[in-house]
């Protein structure tokens, strides 16, 4: 049984690295297509929050991997409304 890699390093070092890479590229293309972000110049008073990739195998009823799925999570918990962002949007991509 394939287990979900816990880190990006484990995903790219695995024997399924091409499949995980395709899944990450597909996620980035979907985020770009849906205008999930804007490029802006970072002011000196603001700081940049990080992000994490989450990897998830989707199995069929025979317990075979059917899909390699990724999620890009942004660490926005330290942002301050009105300073770091103006509006909040929830974007759910499958």
What does it look like?
The protein has 94 residues and is an alpha+beta fold. It has one domain. Helix content is 24%, strand content 20%. It contains 2 helices and 2 strands, in the order H-H-E-E. A two-stranded antiparallel ribbon has the order 1-2. The longest helix has 17 residues. The two termini are 23 Å apart. The model has no long low-confidence stretch (mean pLDDT 81).
DSSP helix count? 2
Structural class of the helix and strand makeup? alpha+beta
**Would you count the extended β strands for me?**
2
Q: What percent of residues are in strands?
A: 15-25%
What is the rounded Rg? Answer: 16 Å
Largest sheet: 2 strands, antiparallel
- Strands side by side in the biggest sheet: 1-2
> What do the pLDDT scores average to?
81
**Ends distance:** 23 Å
Give helix and strand order, one letter per element, not per position: HHEE
The poorly predicted ranges are none
Q: What's the domain count?
A: 1
Please tell me what the overall shape is. elongated
Could you estimate the helical fraction of the residues in percent?
A: 10-25%
Write the layout of secondary structure elements.
Blueprint: H1 8-13, H2 17-33, E1 51-59, E2 65-74
Antiparallel strand pairs: 1-2
Summed up, what is this model?
The protein has 94 residues and is of the alpha+beta class. The protein has helices spanning 8-13, 17-33; strands spanning 51-59, 65-74. A two-stranded antiparallel sheet has the order 1-2.
